[in-house]
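Figure caption, in words: inputs first, then the predicted bound structure.
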Amino acid sequence: MKNTTNKKPDKKKNSNSSNSMLIWFAIIFFVIASFAFLPDESANEVEISYNSYKELLAENKIKSASIENDNSFHGELFEEATLINKNGAEFQDRKLFVVFLPADYSEQISIWDEKNIEYNFEGEKIDWTGWLLGFAPWLLLIAFWLFLLRRMQGSGNGMNNVFSFGKSKAKIFSGKQKKVKFKDVAGCIEAKEELEEVIAYLKSPKKFEKLGGKIPRGVLLVGPPGTGKTLLARAVAGESNVPFFSISGADFVEMFVGVGASRVRDLFEQANKNAPAIVFIDELDAVGRQRGAGLGGGHDEREQTLNQLLVELDGFENSSSVIVMGATNRPDVLDSALLRPGRFDRQVVVDVPDLNGRHEILKIHTKKIKIKPKSVNLLDIAKGTPGMVGADLANLVNEAALLASRRRKASVDNSDFQEAQDKVLMGVQRKSMVLSDHEKKVTAYHEAGHAVVALFSPEADPVHKVTIIPRGRALGVTMQLPIDEKHGYSKTYILSRLAVMMGGRAAEELILNEITTGASNDIERATSIARRMVCEWGMSDIMGPMAFGKKNEEIFLGREIQSHRDYSEETAQKIDHEVVSIIKNAQKTALQILEKNIKLLHLMADQLLEHETINESDIKLMMAGNKISKN
Ligand code: ADP
Ligand code: ZN
Ligand code: MG
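Bound structure (adenosine-5'-diphosphate present):
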């Protein structure tokens, strides 16, 4: 493969953080604004000192007063005057003032009588508006908080949502939906057999119990993503005609502590009421991860949920006919308590389909589209798609149908499938990318180099297609397809692969006497394979069959994040040395093959420049020294 080097700069901006900033600003604004609205009482009454009061009294300026039971004297003057408050500030044209009297002011009363001041005594006045306004910021905050809560809940049913956390979110498949049957699931023969037994039990639980047979209560579907686990579970529901409660592990995880556990309880309560029934927990690893592995430490929310799940699994031992099914693609991270007898004790493996399986899956999915009669050979497509799972194949068929409709064809034919396959396997064609003539020439020799080395290396996969039309991130692609599925690889095969990877760069060097950045991806992949040969597969003669470096699995993150070095500095140097020598040998091998077949290399590069894409039969022609004749 030859790469483009201009990676696009990452333009992801944090629009999220600016959003929450806005919310905070809004909150702060509200708080400040509401304090500003508080009544400023000093605007009406000036709080003066006791001395000033005595002066006013002596000057006979006070007309009337009311004394409250906190000893405050609220006075009114005969006419407006300039008042000085107890802090020394001046207030002009004021009539009202307040002063605090000594605890025992009985002496004062006689003075007031003497001066003919109207006075009365009142209980402390409560300033209702002020009081309410004082609460305003809190009310606003609470309202705002409720509003946020509702938004987080997905705002669907308004207020109801806030109070329905603990309900399980399980969906019930009822008769109205289109039922999935076993015949809609291709392959997975062993898995289906196991599940048939479960279905037979659900159809007549009494019969089984009479015979004293013990049926597994928990069935765990295990397999890589896209292999049809969810589909299979739905097929069980469709076949058995019992209520089917389906929930995804992620639905248990919520913002509030304890919600997950109560959802589990609710789910099983519902299932028990409707027994016989099936409970299906998809993506079980979301709740079922090993306990005590969280980065946040000990007893977290997820653990509570898992504990509740374990309790419920034990709960309905023999009392009811509820079967629990789970699906996961990470059985290795599941808590071992989940896999104990009596819980998910039966594991059903749903594996990547083989040739026959892929053929069957293609048959099922092509039934839904209109295919030109006799034009498409599904078996050939199945052969050309090793390693693809059901979801990929469904996608492939869909792509082909889309291509045909884009070309306004009445039905889907072979060329649509071919292009869809190329698109899925090698990335989208980038026709808009214009290469200079020199770039094209370099790419043609680079890809021809890969192809020629592949043709003459022992055990190498046959070359399926070579193209210099840019696809995805690559300027050109050489595609090899294995003859049949491989489950393990020999050292010869791997060395051949390394040679093929180095073939691109070697051809550039040999013919054009320059090297380009286009080989960066080849080199990266080759280096990683070479290192694994030494460190994992024990394929180095010098280092011997030893595994170097222990992988640390961080279960909470779900993947291996570091490889722990368990060897000395000296060994590390030796390993590096071995890796370098493996790569250099592969390069040498590639160069030798190319030198020996330089005529074929020139011919192939030449033909690539002319036709842009060549396939297996074209290559056979060229091996015999002929040019390709295309129409
Ligand atoms: P998983 O749950 O294992 O990740 P799914 O069951 O969601 O995979 O499969 C995704 C889609 O792929 C299905 O909806 C179906 O269209 C297709 N598919 C996968 N496996 C099969 C199969 N064995 N037979 C038919 N279709 C399949
Ligand atoms: Zn390459
Ligand atoms: Mg799934």
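Confidence is low (pLDDT under 50) at residues 5-18, 155-163, 555-559.
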